[in-house]
Amino acid sequence: MAVYTDISEAELRAFLAPYAIGELLSYKGIAEGVENSNFLLHTSQGSFILTLYEKRVEKADLPFFLGLMEHLAQKGLSCPIPVHPGDGPALGELAGRPAAVISFLEGMWPRRPMPHHCDALGKAMAHFHLEGRDFSLKRENALSVSAWRPLWDSCAPQADQVQAGLATEIESELTALEGSWPTDLPAGVIHADLFPDNVFFLGEQLSGLIDFYFACNDLFAYDLAICLNAWCFERDGSFNATKAVALLSGYETVRPLESAEMDALPILARGASLRFFLTRLYDWLTVPDGAMVVKKDPLEYLRYSRFHRTVATVGGYGYDPS
After folding, report:
1. Dist. CA 87–CA 153, nearest whole Å
2. pTM for this one?
3. By residue range, what is the domain housing residue 86?
4. Is the C-alpha dihedral spanning 11, 17, 20, 23 positive or negative?
5. Alpha carbon distance 266, 311 (integer Å)
6. Are 223 and 97 a contacting pair, CB within 8 Å?
7. 259-286 vs 220-231: helix axis angle to the nearest 10?
């Protein structure tokens, strides 16, 4: 479920009155998504997305997210674009929530990613990194390595209830990552959440990227590491090196990686898997059943973490940078 705040037709019509998007014909909630309430609007001028930003999204971050979409679109990257009500700001308020109307992006996300999807993703991500370099706003990654310890401390007392021995294992892994996390690699604006459901395709062609609400300033290679986790494991938990090679080689056709970035990929992939494990574990332990936040199995990313700990170099992912 991804409609946490309901809206009436009267409220919506009043909110949309300043927007030059035509007459509202229909609207419906969108089931996909986790953090915000999303509605598909059909108007006499086309389709649009209305997003109501819920309590887990900081209102102060919204100008960064919306501004980044506008910046990238101006640079030629295919992504949704915030719609302004006349000369006013893109961010408004509806039903007591910050709200924005966003252009509709055609396409579908790949339910079972294949190597050609990973290749296209790598290229699009590299373009994203390059085109975001001159974006003027900054946003620290609130879920980078410095945030993992507080998350873990809140979960550790109950961890062994999820799986025996988990507390000792995660404490050891977290300490290792804190002591070896790279800081001097190329950095800039990253998406930080390029899971398959945030990448749209029309047929075989990538049609655009969506959901920029974790975007931030961090290491470019960390964005790749997140995608090694999100795109390159099969449903049985096995790692698909063919997909990893397609992802990395696609990226390098647009932005070649420095040798230090290559060397850091295994540790970054370990960190990415731990980050998603910890946020899932926190929700698993603290969010009541039936609450509006969607809980996902944290053990999926624990399995990924264990795999990455066996990888010493990028060659362990099947990739030969030479």
Report:
1. 47
2. 0.94
3. 9-103
4. positive
5. 6
6. no
7. 60
